[in-house]
Amino acid sequence: MPSLGVPELIIIFLIIVVLFGANKIPQIGKGLGEGIRNFKKGMNDGENDAAQIPDKTGPKS
Prior knowledge:
The protein has helices spanning 6-20, 25-52. It is mainly α.
């Protein structure tokens, strides 16, 4: 599988600029950052909630 080099990344960046415009790129980056941050926070909250659930299997003999 070929890897992405600098020329390929520049072409991808130029396509993004043409599609979304230079003014929209910071907004897209901010939205992605907030989405990733909220996802990580949700994952951590889910782990904390799972740790607080009591074991209802009863006493072991």
